[in-house]
């Protein structure tokens, strides 16, 4: 089977799993099994326990000079891509009309952050094998640092000293730094502890998507298809930003597996954290839910399309 056909199959499978898990959360909320107080506690568990374990586990890999070189390359590319996306989102999605609608910050978040963890990692592993796992872990770690610094500040709207300190001391940021040191100095956790951290980290996908589904319960699903702002978000996240990344990667003469992995992860649909952060900050979740749903469905076409230009 060719890589392209296998890749499309993985995308379809991951999207199906995503909607099953979101559907479970939707049903649990509709049945009043997951009420708001319960969801609030589970969101705290997800953001401050489960996700730090996922981030740390990404760095539990053997060290070698070649791996370090590739680590720095992918890390630098991921850092540059996120900075580029942040600047572009500020320039393109900061208009008066968006601010009046109260969704400017949410649109900027959906444009910058992709679902590189859940959809992206399994996809690139199936696409290029072990290199996909390594490159993907580095990209996701960098993404996590940005999510828990710029992403949090984007939703909270604060950049004062107290808020900055709180963001920098966020468990996800701290754990990413510690994980990087563990990789550089070849420090491995004891087997039992490593397995425990891994099991907790694996809860991330199911728990996050169930909570996203629960957040969809009060929203009228039929209205999603008629949201012009959500479709604009899909165009920016799924097509415009990845196209810019592709041009930059080709200009830098990035080739092979690294090109495919970095492009694929930057071209994934809207991240589920767009809904989670809106819940955490008390904002309306209708727009991020609409953008997430439409972007995920559209990725069935847009993700293979973007990768075809890199083949």
Main beta sheet: none
* CATH-defined architecture: Up-down Bundle
Strand percentage: under 5%
> What is the CATH first-level class name?
Mainly Alpha
**Shape assignment:** globular
Please provide the ordered H/E string of secondary-structure elements: HHHHHHHHHHHHHHH
* Class by SSE composition: mainly alpha
Rounded Rg: 18 Å
Structurally, the number of domains stands at 1
SS elements, strand count: 0
Task: Report the helical percentage.
Answer: over 70%
Number of helices: 15
Question: Overall mean pLDDT score?
Answer: 85
Termini distance?
A: 16 Å
Low-confidence stretches: none
Could you tell me the CATH topology label.
Answer: Na+/H+ antiporter like fold
Keywords: Cell membrane, Membrane, Transmembrane, Transmembrane helix, Transport
Protein name: AEC family transporter
Membrane topology: Multi-pass membrane protein
Family: Belongs to the auxin efflux carrier (TC 2.A.69) family.
Which helices and strands occur, and which strands form pairs?
Blueprint: H1 3-30, H2 36-57, H3 65-92, H4 96-101, H5 104-112, H6 116-128, H7 130-156, H8 161-168, H9 171-184, H10 191-201, H11 203-216, H12 228-251, H13 256-266, H14 273-280, H15 286-308
Helix pairs in contact: 1-6, 1-11, 1-15, 2-9, 2-10, 2-11, 3-5, 3-7, 5-12, 6-7, 6-13, 7-8, 7-13, 11-14, 12-13, 12-15
